[in-house]
Amino acid sequence: MRLRDFGLRNGINEVIVITKGEKLNTAPIGIIVENENSVFAKSKLFPSHTRSNLEKGSFFVANVVNDAILFALATFEDLGEEHFESLDPPILRGSLAFCEFEPKLEGSITYLKLLRGKVLRNEVRAVNRGFNAVIEALIFATRLKLNPKFAEKIKECYEIIERCGGEREKLAMEIIKEKTGIL
Q: By residue range, what is the domain housing residue 15?
């Protein structure tokens, strides 16, 4: 068992992580992989519900997802049970794989050790620039309070989504517009 077996490759892998506090918390998180043939990774976690849940001993389950709408919704709110195909372990509908990690917090870094995982769907999909632009727009949206100039970067992503994205990417763009107010 290694990270690569579940689609996590060297670099930053965007996934939707599920933790548990008073309710299930869903959040897009970048998992940093330095050796995809190992079971070790890390992530930067700043003050958030996700981090607070981990400080209280929550599990850390990463869902490998390629649905732009799920990423957009999870960025701005916790997904309800209707978005899950399983609650134990917590698996989002349409997830390609899930991985449960043992998290260890050290400052802003969370060190992760892969405990178990499962490939749920073997789906072949070419790179879609619109999907990638949705992910970039969401990253900028989460950092918008830190730097208002990210609004322009989000607008640049909209142009790529409009030109290159499919229906789900364009619907995700509408969610981003609604939640950020950036048109």
A: 3-119
